[in-house]
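Researcher: We plan to redesign the surface later, but first we want a full-length starting point. Tokens attached.
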């Protein structure tokens, strides 16, 4: 959301399967990199009207929506709350189901 209250969507909108929906989850899930050049966020896929969660992964991209990179690919985990290391070389996130903390190196 910009300062005027206008919504901007980062991440891919929708998928081809009419029974599956997906979307980027914003604050408190979105986090700026320390240098302000990237945003890390949780991207969730769900199914049905009640959005039964199928899975989620952490992505990073530029604030304008370009250069999208998937940093997790774990169909059996639901990653949440990404945070950057102070030097911007790692992202930590929590596994919602496992209650583990994951640290991912960013190249």
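Model: Full-length starting sequence:
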């Amino acid at each position: 959301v910009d300062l005027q209250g206008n919504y901007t969507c980062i991440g891919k909108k929708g998928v081809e399967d009419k029974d599956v929906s997906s979307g980027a989850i914003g604050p408190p899930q979105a986090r700026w990199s320390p240098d302000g050049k990237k945003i890390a966020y949780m991207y969730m896929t769900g199914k049905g009207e009640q959005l039964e969660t199928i899975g989620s992964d952490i992505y990073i991209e530029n604030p304008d929506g370009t250069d999208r990179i998937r940093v997790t690919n774990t169909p059996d985990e639901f990653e949440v709350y990404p945070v950057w290391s102070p030097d911007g070389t790692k992202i930590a996130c929590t596994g919602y189901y496992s209650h583990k903390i994951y640290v991912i190196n960013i190249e």
